[in-house]
Amino acid sequence: MSTPHNILITSISKKIPLIKAVRKALENIGSGKIFGGDSNFSCIGRYFVDEFWLMPFQGILTIDEIIDFCKQKNIRAIIPTRDGELPFFAKHKEQLNQEGIACLVPSKKTVELCLDKFLFYTFLAKNKLPAIPTAKNISEIDAQSYVVKECFGAGSVSIGLDLTLSEAKEWGTKLKHPIYQPYIHGTEYSLDLYIDHQGSCLGSIVRERELVCDGESQVTVSVHHPEIDHLCRKAAELLGIRGPAVFQVLSDRSKHLHLIECNPRFGGASTLSVMMGLKIFDWFFQESFNLPLTPFHRPPNEMRQVRYPEDIVIDIPDVVQNLAFLARQNPGDRTS
């Protein structure tokens, strides 16, 4: 009987498509349980994993606690899903590896380059790649209108778009670490790729972002765009990407490309790329557990993905219902 490949997904929140993609990849390599961690006891994702772990908030949780939990539950791989936790896991990746626990995160240097948008721009510009001009002082940006966003974290948080000079200056006063970019009209694209341990790109998919809500693609369609593919592969090589990454690219009205940012993790709409043959989690498991790599096969037809809320109904056994009733009577008890 083969050893089970138990997996921990952190910050599961409401990332149901990601959990389902992990489960399918896990089934492809054998048996195993999915453990889902989150600091919110009421998160939706807990209903889609095999066991839920109420994780301490970031800054309180230690790497020793994570290792102890993984050993207790026979967890052999960790998939972080939130930008804010990537530096922590990148810092401790080697320690996890020594304990026999694979972690889907690139190096500390790569994470720093990707999560700091000003550093991302300066690094790529120094290497002659067309990153969108970015400055900490708005006087350094010559533009008709501006984009203002936080330098760190998700680019969609507190973003100001198509602002006048005075509006942009005012918007910047509301942010902790504002950066300024020119507002450029054009078409938005994402590119998902996976880089193996040796630095080879196993596959990539370009997606046009047809409808964007809160920074994520609500409707996205796969496309052939060799120029974007070539540009992002070159950027990934320079950045030292390992594992999955999502690049955001803007094609302006003159068809010039502008690299906006890179998230070195699985993206919110990356499930379309999985359906298009980009076996991100299969490859992670195969690399981690020394299994043969599945070849990349892109289907001939393009696909469109529409992300939408969906209801599920779960039968509640009497014993679970009674426990839930008792928990409501004792709200201070947060054990699951």
Features:
336 residues; alpha/beta; Rossmann fold; D-amino Acid Aminotransferase, Chain A, domain 1; 3 domains; six-stranded antiparallel β-sheet; five-stranded parallel β-sheet; 14 strands; 25% strand; globular
Describe this structure in a few short sentences.
The chain is α/β, with parallel strands linked by helices. It is built from eleven helices and 14 strands.
Task: Please provide a written account of the structure.
- With 336 residues, the chain is of the alpha/beta class.
- It folds into 3 domains: 6-104, Rossmann fold (3-Layer(aba) Sandwich); 111-115 and 185-306, ATP-grasp fold, B domain (D-amino Acid Aminotransferase, Chain A, domain 1, 2-Layer Sandwich), CATH 3.30.470; 143-182, no CATH class.
- The chain contains 11 helices and 14 strands.
- It has helices at residues 16-29, 63-72, 86-91, 93-98, 108-115, 117-126, 165-172, 226-239, 271-275, 280-288, 318-329; strands at residues 6-9, 34-38, 51-54, 75-79, 102-103, 146-150, 160-163, 178-182, 186-195, 201-213, 216-223, 243-252, 257-263, 304-306.
- Strand 1, helix 1 (16-29) and strand 2 form a beta-alpha-beta unit.
- Helix 1 crosses helix 10 (280-288) and helix 5 crosses helix 6.
Q: How is the secondary structure organized here?
A:
Elements: E1 6-9, H1 16-29, E2 34-38, E3 51-54, H2 63-72, E4 75-79, H3 86-91, H4 93-98, E5 102-103, H5 108-115, H6 117-126, E6 146-150, E7 160-163, H7 165-172, E8 178-182, E9 186-195, E10 201-213, E11 216-223, H8 226-239, E12 243-252, E13 257-263, H9 271-275, H10 280-288, E14 304-306, H11 318-329
Parallel strand pairs: 1-2, 1-4, 2-3, 4-5
Antiparallel strand pairs: 6-7, 6-8, 9-10, 9-12, 10-11, 11-14, 12-13
Helix pairs in contact: 1-10, 5-6
